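Researcher: I need the complex structure. Ligand is iron/sulfur cluster. Inputs:
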Amino acid sequence: MFIVDYLKDVYGAMKSLLIGMNRTGYYFTHHKEIITEQYPDNRDTLVMADRFRGEVVMAHDENNEHACTGCSACELACPNGTIKIINKFDISPEGKKKKAIDTFVYHLELCTMCGLCVEACPTAAINMANTFEHSVFNRGLLTKRLNKPDSKLKAGVE
Amino acid sequence: MVEEIGKTAEGDLIINVGPQHPATHGVLHLVITLNGETIKKVEPHLGYIHRSIEKMCESLTYRQFIYSTSRMDYLSAHINNHACALTVEKGLGIEIPARAQVIRVLMDELTRIASHELWWGAMAMDLGAFTPFFHAFRERESINDIMEETCGARLTMNYMVPGGVMMDLHPNFQNRVKTFLKLYKLKIHEYDELVTGNIIFQNRMKGVGYLSKEAAISYGVTGPAARGSGVSCDVRKLYPYEIYHQLQFDEILETEGDSFARYMVRLREMNESIKIIEQLIDNIPDGDFQAKTKAVLKLPKGEFYQLVETARGELGVYIVSEGGTTPYRIKFRSPGFSNLSCLDHITRGGKIGDLIASMGTLDLVIPDIDR
Ligand code: SF4
Ligand code: SF4
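Model: Output:
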């Protein structure tokens, strides 16, 4: 029966459309289920995951001491040439020369946040911070020095 | 001979879709020859996002090159990394701890779901329905949060390293995944209500973009696109890696070969991935998450090849080593490239309006095609 099949088709089609409309209507009236985050407005309450890889930083303690020995393992591990280690030679009280870090240059603009440098560091001197708002007006600001001025190596770290 | 700009000698119309076109999901350029509304030929032009990843990998060490493969098929970044790590491990001949294997499989399947979710939203958007995109992103977002918490990144995770995974699971991981499973089960019926059952959607998908079993095999189509034509090609079943041989899941096959069949394969595949996650989430063995490896990895002289199943199909990683710390040559057999090659075949003779629907069901990711 052609006419019965035809009507069945029309009924099925209308039904499928109404089911979809019903779903849309549900969300139209249930605002609580909408999970959109209003990003720049919710900055104060925004919590980033603690492992989120945003940029490489070097931790300093209250005595302005860090754990970087200047071994260059991170520089070798980086696939993008983001890190440049410049070393100097300290004279210890006994008169011996000792290698130490002078400048840890970090090019944020070249970094892909892969985390390989953190993996490679034998003394866990660097880690990934979860900051992510890196836009600046001057590209030069993206080249950073990670060891703070006048900082020195923590005692006991080899 | 071209007589008039935009026309062939026979008077057929030539139009360009892309390189910047929302329906191509990236920078794909299609040159389409049209006779009226009927497609006579579709010619994809590639190379707009070529970054020579293969060549770049030749100058990176075996630890370093893995991160760059996240940028090929960025929706299956985990699975790409996994393939590379497996190939390097094959060369080194090391055993991976059981915990690392389970973590890897869990992450792969989460990635697969996230990828299919995004495809589903984009597919509906190609056909003019915008709302499903947001529904898909809601579920995908919770997967991305899980990734962010454990791996440290949302898309380019770089979590797989030769020997295991980079960090141990986050303490919240199990709870988060269980919450996601609950959410998924609560919401998955909406996918059918909004899109699958919709009469307009069905009429635009059924009988369109027909790919026969023989054609799928001869074009080298893999993944859900081929399984929609009844080709059994799931690498997880046929050449199991890691612990896939111990898991209970089905290979989804549909036999119609049209766009709707490919659509159904992906939807049903998500449920299979959920099954795998449910089997593993309470049974993560204790132990190391990474095998002990040397600081500098050196592969012995030789050739190594490993297949995995990404969300789009079969990804092969082929490494030629000369015995040094960097590969001599790396070749990726990417699923997207072969899947794209059948586009001309499935759309020829059809209407221009069906082109986007057919292309959407192939689930093309352009950086995967160009590399
Ligand atoms: S940060 Fe770590 S790896 Fe890099 S130079 Fe300092 S100690 Fe060596
Ligand atoms: S995160 Fe990766 S790219 Fe960035 S400095 Fe470390 S190793 Fe280099």
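Model: Summary of the prediction. Chain B has a mean pLDDT of 86.
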